[in-house]
């Protein structure tokens, strides 16, 4: 019961249209979950196993969490979030119980999605800190539940990681996380869409050139684009506290000072 309070059950309010671009990933992700739910007879007819777990991997701030939430919202699924590191730190000694609790709750809330964020926390490579044994036990409990005798009916397991390179291979075997999708940094078109979504909510001047903003933000994550739009608003306020609009120049200035966290070394993981 003490562990249960930590499991957050929600009905998120993120729609596919709130996610700028990334169309191909949206499509593949939708298929993975919606087809088995909506067309189970096709899977039987063709003798195809629906994916048991879906792993989203890619650099930070590029919409993995948004994707999982949009899927739940649009398909009307209950959404349970579990953060990998929390399973280790908050539940030391109770970790296996906590995992069982997560799955019990997910079954009770079916149709549902369990979202394991930062799942790599459970798969730290051996030979180091004292948390390793806890991570190991949590991981094998997770695998037990996924392989389990009790079938997971209408429960979809989605996990996210920035570090596929440290993931335990046992997790990505068939019948576990057997659908693996790369969620990369937004391309030009996706960046334009992310700006478009942000700008809709802002009061911007006529001189605004979204195309140029999208071109100049190559290498930025979606999260960084959202942050720099906020920064542009602050810059406009700094310039004139009674300003009614944010101008193109404010966005250009915000882009200059935007930190790009996704490095080429980081992209080499993927
Ligand atoms: P992390 O690996 O750091 O957990 P993530 O890939 O799960 O990151 P999200 O949490 O989905 O990233 O995105 C962070 C924030 O960035 C979102 O809340 C949203 O504001 C913004 N964002 C990222 N990508 C997009 C996008 N394609 N469209 C709109 N907003 C985006």
UniProtKB/TrEMBL annotation:
Which GO cellular component terms are attached? cytoplasm
Coiled coil feature spans: none
Q: Which domain of life is it from?
A: Eukaryota
> Which keywords annotate this record?
ATP-binding, Nucleotide-binding, Repeat
Task: Report whether Nuclease shows up as a keyword of the record.
Answer: no
* Ranges for domain AAA+ ATPase: 50-187
Q: Which GO terms describe its molecular function?
A: ATP binding; ATP hydrolysis activity
Where are the membrane-spanning stretches?
none
The name of this protein is 13918_t:CDS:1
Organism name: Ambispora leptoticha
Q: Which residues of the full protein are shown?
A: 491 to 760 of 772
């Amino acid at each position: 019961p003490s562990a249960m309070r930590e499991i957050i059950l929600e009905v998120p309010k993120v729609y596919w249209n709130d996610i700028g671009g990334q169309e191909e990933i949206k499509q593949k992700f939708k298929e993975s979950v919606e087809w088995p739910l909506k067309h189970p007879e096709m899977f039987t007819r063709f003798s195809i196993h629906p994916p048991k777990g879906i792993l989203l991997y890619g650099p930070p701030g590029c919409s993995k969490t948004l994707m999982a939430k949009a899927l739940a919202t649009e398909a009307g699924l209950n959404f349970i979030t579990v953060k990998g590191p929390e399973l280790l730190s908050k539940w030391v000694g109770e970790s296996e119980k906590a995992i069982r609790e997560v799955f019990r709750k997910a079954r009770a809330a079916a149709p549902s999605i369990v979202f394991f964020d930062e799942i790599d926390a459970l798969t730290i490579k051996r030979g180091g800190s004292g948390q390793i044994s806890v991570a190991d036990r949590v991981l094998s409990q997770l695998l037990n539940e996924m392989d389990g005798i009790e079938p997971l009916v209408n429960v979809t397991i989605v996990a996210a990681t920035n570090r596929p390179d440290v993931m335990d291979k046992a997790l990505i075997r068939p019948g576990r996380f057997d659908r693996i999708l790369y969620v990369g940094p937004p391309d030009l078109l996706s960046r334009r869409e992310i700006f478009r979504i942000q700008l809709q909510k802002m009061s911007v001047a006529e001189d605004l050139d979204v195309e140029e903003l999208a071109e100049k933000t190559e290498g930025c994550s979606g999260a960084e684009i959202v942050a720099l739009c906020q920064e542009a608003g602050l810059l406009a306020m700094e310039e004139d506290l009674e300003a009614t609009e944010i101008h193109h120049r404010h966005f250009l200035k915000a882009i200059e000072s935007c930190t790009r966290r996704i490095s080429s070394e980081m992209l080499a993981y993927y």
